[in-house]
Amino acid sequence: MSTFDRRRINGPEESYPPLFEDGHDVGDAYANWKVGEPRQRRSAGDVRPIFMKPGLINQANGSAYVETEKTKLVCAVYGPRQSRNTAYSERGRLNVEVKFTPFSCTKRRAPIRDAEDRSVAVQIHQAILPSVRLELLPKSTVDVFITIIENDGLESCYASGAVAASAALADAGIEMLGLVTSCSSSMVGKEIWLDPTEREISLAKGSLVLACMPALGIVTSVWQSGEVKPVEAIECMEACQERCADIHAIVSEALLANAKVI
Amino acid sequence: MASISLSKSEKSYIQTSLTSTPPIRGDGRSLLDYRPIALEIGVVPLANGSVRLNIGKSTHEGAGGTEVLAAVKLEVEDVVNGDGVDGGRVVCSVSCSPAAYPHLSSNALDDLSYDMTTVLNQTLAHPSLRPSNLGILPKKKSWGLHLDLIVLADSGNVFDALFMAARAALWDTKVPVTRVVEYQAKKGGAVRQDDMDVEQESGLDTRQVSRAVDFELPDYWDEGETLAGQDRWPVCVTLNIVSPIYYLDATLQEEASTPLRLLLALSFPKTEAPTLKASRLLGPGEVELSQIKALVQDGEKHAGELFAALEAKLREEDVRRNQKARDRFILR
């Protein structure tokens, strides 16, 4: 196996995540759920409560921790610093790297960089790229490192990751056009459920993640997958944009509170 | 994205000519024109379905254009111990030939192929698109459909080419016919080989657990039956946005001077309304939600036209490969 890491103590070659008997997992509110029934535990347009703490990593120029129930991630921003490669570039480079911790999913993720890391990084990069004023940072690189501590669905990681990255960039004092916030949605039956969990996405026929700068009304990223009618997709985008404005208030409040403490 | 480097003045030159009235493009097309698309199915003899597609081959020189080769291979996968999924699965991968991107380092090339793979895989491997005839033995064995695409040359609009090639290759795919085999012990007797029973007789009895243990490949005149859900595979249109206009089928130079692209993959099932299978916004440009709404509506129209054109060509290719080949055989 080429992905064998000889510097680590590797576990057994084959291992399986534990499988619980039916009914053991009391937390599954969707065990007897059928299409057409209402959403469990919250209404369709509600998002999970968001906790945000900027500036908790001292050595980084800027950082942020975001927690929305079972999605927990931390983001650190280093830079702007001189680009390592010698080629002259007029605009700065924005470099986003995402890592899942080995214990972030139900099945253990090997600590080797795998396929999914990059796809999350690419989405977060797209979400924050239009907001950062890279034209002011020639010859420099801004590094954004995101560590996903707990994962509750890719869509949720895209959304929370973009929010955390934008807050961390603001915390680092890097010039931006506006704060980027992001919200995910899924089409379940004929309803739009905002901020779905991994379980809810498995029930959905399609999902959409929108990232925007609510202060300027500019959309920075649209990611959609699955089966959604064009009209429904537009409804999803509208619902997400409305919720992004609320998230914007939370982020700016958290940033302000952090700035006052210092 | 992968683009050639252009000077600032050249970029601005292209942008200005695109936004002027009337818009001017380097090759004389209007904003919504595609370059000529050529495709041929069944080009890889060992694959279950294959296609070679070219966008923008110049008619005089016979070269140039974006060229994509796509091939489908089916593998029997074990559901219990292997990677298989009950009912079959679809896996896509895109690799970019270094010949198509000579200016990229091998790392950058890997990242690029990886990003393309992600877009295709997230769209085509979604459970909502899974074909219904990929199962072999329920809960034991299934077909794993591997769709591999190779970008042989890139002169712009590679995503549209990839999705079109994927659709054509999946259209061309033949799934070998399998028959489930089970063994029954005779009452009070030993197991004998000739007591082989075919699933079709007892398969309707859902109370009992399927005793099917293996499968066989019956002799079949053709290579197999066509992959189910032929009309569901999406096509993609890339809307290149240079505010306030957008245009289709960008060349490499135009791509390099366009700040924002909207990818829309739509599927047009025969009996239902069209559905969006994927959408992505790429690039550092700015766009408002009201603009996106208009773009999605227009995109649906353009994708519908592309879909109809591709459908007509695929049917023609089917005739060429089957009917005409048969006629030629008889004449010989």
Automatic annotation (TrEMBL), chain A:
The keyword rRNA-binding does not apply. SUPFAM superfamilies: Ribonuclease PH domain 2-like, Ribosomal protein S5 domain 2-like. This is Ribosomal protein S5 domain 2-like protein. Signal peptide: none annotated. Belongs to the RNase PH family. InterPro entries: ExoRNase_PH_dom1, ExoRNase_PH_dom2, ExoRNase_PH_dom2_sf, PNPase/RNase_PH_dom_sf, Ribosomal_Su5_D2-typ_SF, RNase_PH. Residues 1-21 are annotated as: Disordered. One of its GO terms (biological process) is U4 snRNA 3'-end processing. Residues 1-11 have a biased composition (Basic and acidic residues). Keywords: Cytoplasm, Exosome, Nucleus, Ribonucleoprotein, Ribosomal protein, RNA-binding, rRNA processing. Residues 47-175, 179-239 form the Exoribonuclease phosphorolytic domain. GO terms for molecular function: RNA binding. It is found in: Cytoplasm; Nucleus. The lineage of its organism: Eukaryota, Fungi, Dikarya, Basidiomycota, Agaricomycotina. The keyword Metal-binding does not apply. GO terms for cellular component: cytoplasmic exosome (RNase complex); nuclear exosome (RNase complex); nucleolus; ribosome. CDD domains: RNase_PH_MTR3. It comes from the Eukaryota.
Automatic annotation (TrEMBL), chain B:
The keyword Zinc does not apply. Residues 34-176 form the Exoribonuclease phosphorolytic domain. GO terms for cellular component: cytoplasmic exosome (RNase complex); nuclear exosome (RNase complex); nucleolus; ribosome. GO terms for biological process: exonucleolytic trimming to generate mature 3'-end of 5.8S rRNA from tricistronic rRNA transcript (SSU-rRNA, 5.8S rRNA, LSU-rRNA); nuclear mRNA surveillance; nuclear polyadenylation-dependent rRNA catabolic process; rRNA catabolic process; TRAMP-dependent tRNA surveillance pathway; U1 snRNA 3'-end processing; U4 snRNA 3'-end processing; U5 snRNA 3'-end processing. Gene3D superfamilies: GHMP Kinase, N-terminal domain. GO terms for molecular function: mRNA 3'-UTR AU-rich region binding. Pfam families: RNase_PH (PF01138). The keyword Cell inner membrane does not apply. InterPro entries: ExoRNase_PH_dom1, ExoRNase_PH_dom2_sf, Exosome_comp_Rrp42_subfam, PNPase/RNase_PH_dom_sf, Ribosomal_Su5_D2-typ_SF. It is found in: Cytoplasm; Nucleus, Nucleolus. It comes from the Eukaryota. Keywords: Cytoplasm, Exosome, Ribonucleoprotein, Ribosomal protein. Belongs to the RNase PH family. This is Ribosomal RNA-processing protein 42. It comes from Neolentinus lepideus HHB14362 ss-1.
